[in-house]
């Protein structure tokens, strides 16, 4: 049986191709009201169909009438007379089918708009969560973010209107579109990373009250909230280690060739000690791995892996170093006599 994500992907495709039944359109309408992530997926499909020319202009629909029906559905009568009224726009609405399909298409589109207001009511911020895996996200200014699984970014709904500022919890890789008039700022706890246009990795959970920044290209300015003049400039190939408790910033040459392994799937070990290999694997695969015998820490590994599963990597380590791997209470243990 297909999973939920695949089902709704197929349902959206059916909707835009004009093949969805009334019952399927009803299910799609309900799904759109459940989560802003669903809305984003719907919008991405819509843009794809518009670009490929599968959309066509046809009969105008009474948008106000559709809105009133949807607004009542989204907001049951609670005695509060307040309701959301969209700006009236003249002209025809783009849709893709005729007859009841045209009306249903507009209904779904308007529900998507209404749901956006409903789910973000009283809010002026957009929150994006990479809850099911790494997530690629393009911001309104064209900047690109690779968000690691379990991480969260938050930015103002009027992003790029007054300032370009995102709040990060977790780890992300940024490719910032240059705009000299509006610097791009990443906020993590009380630390601030400010750039004009560059590529860099930020991890707000590098340790206890620690944030790490590794610069790929360009330059970044790092400082603490309210103290912008006391900043540290980071150059390509450097790593900044930021303590949010002591408010200190230390820069070093980036010692980790695998800092983007979580994103690109590539692991490089060049005569790397086994304890460092294990630390890297634990971080990349988000699985706790330990050395059962500390004498193994003196062993070293030279190997390169690209998009390999953890089991595949461990099998190579077992054969190469003659160790055994067992699992106890969800923890992988590596044991052997040493090297």
What does this entry look like structurally?
The protein folds into three domains: 116 residues, no CATH class; 128 residues, Jelly Rolls, CATH 2.60.120.1440; 75 residues, Phage tail protein beta-alpha-beta fold (3-Layer(bab) Sandwich). A hairpin with a 2-residue loop joins strand 9 and strand 10. The chain starts with a helix and ends with a strand. The chain is 30% helix and 32% strand. The strands form four sheets. Strands 1-4-5-7-8-11-12 form a seven-stranded mixed beta sheet, with no helix packed on it. It has a seven-stranded antiparallel beta sheet with strand order 2-3-6-9-10-13-14, with no helix packed on it. The chain contains eight helices and 19 strands. With 339 residues, the protein is α+β, with helices and mostly antiparallel strands. About 16% of the residues have low confidence.
Write a brief structural summary.
The protein is of the alpha+beta class and 339 residues long.
| CATH architecture classification of the largest domain | Sandwich
**What is the CATH topology descriptor of the largest domain?**
Jelly Rolls
Counting helices, strands and paired strands, the structural category is: alpha+beta
Identify the CATH class of the largest domain: Mainly Beta
The count of domains is 3
SS field, number of helical segments: 8
The span between the termini is 48 Å
Flag low-confidence runs.
Answer: 51-63, 73-103, 113-122
Percent strand equals 25-35%
Portion of residues within helices: 25-40%
| Main sheet summary | 7 strands, mixed
Strand order across the largest sheet: 1-4-5-7-8-11-12
Tally of DSSP β-strands: 19
How would the global form be characterised?
A: flat
Mean pLDDT: 78
Rg: 25 Å
Order of helices and strands: HHHHHEEEEEEEEEEEEEEHEHEEHEE
């Amino acid at each position: 049986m297909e999973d939920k994500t695949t089902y709704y992907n197929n349902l959206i495709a059916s909707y835009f191709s004009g093949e969805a039944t009334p019952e399927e359109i009803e299910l799609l309408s309900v799904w759109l009201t459940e989560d802003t992530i669903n809305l984003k997926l719907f919008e991405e499909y819509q843009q794809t169909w518009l670009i490929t020319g599968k959309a066509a202009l046809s009969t105008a629909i009474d948008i106000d009438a559709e809105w009133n029906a949807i607004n009542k559905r989204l907001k049951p009568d609670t005695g509060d007379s307040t309701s959301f009224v969209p700006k009236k726009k003249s002209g025809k609405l783009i849709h893709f089918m005729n007859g009841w399909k045209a009306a249903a298409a507009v209904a779904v589109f308007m529900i998507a708009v209404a749901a956006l207001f409903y789910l973000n009511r009283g809010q002026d911020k957009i929150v994006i969560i990479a809850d099911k895996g790494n997530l690629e996200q393009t911001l309104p200014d064209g900047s690109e973010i690779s968000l690691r699984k379990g991480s969260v970014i938050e930015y103002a709904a009027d992003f790029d209107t007054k300032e370009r500022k995102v709040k990060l919890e977790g780890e992300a890789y940024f490719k910032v579109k240059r705009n000299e008039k509006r610097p791009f700022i990443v906020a993590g706890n009380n630390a601030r990373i400010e750039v004009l246009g560059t590529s860099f990795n930020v991890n707000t959970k590098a340790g206890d009250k620690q944030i790490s920044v590794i610069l790929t290209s360009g330059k970044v300015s790092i400082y603490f909230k309210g103290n912008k003049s006391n900043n540290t400039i980071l150059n390509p190939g450097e790593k900044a280690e930021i303590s949010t408790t002591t408010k200190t910033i230390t820069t070093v040459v980036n010692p980790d060739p695998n800092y983007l392994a979580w994103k690109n799937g590539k692991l490089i070990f060049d005569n790397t000690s086994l304890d460092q290999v294990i630390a890297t694997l634990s971080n990349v695969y988000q699985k706790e791995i330990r050395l059962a015998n500390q004498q193994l820490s003196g062993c070293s590994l030279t190997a390169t892996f690209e998009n390999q599963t953890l089991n595949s990597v461990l099998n190579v380590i077992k054969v190469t170093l003659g160790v055994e791997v067992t699992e106890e209470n969800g923890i992988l243990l590596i044991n052997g006599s040493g090297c």
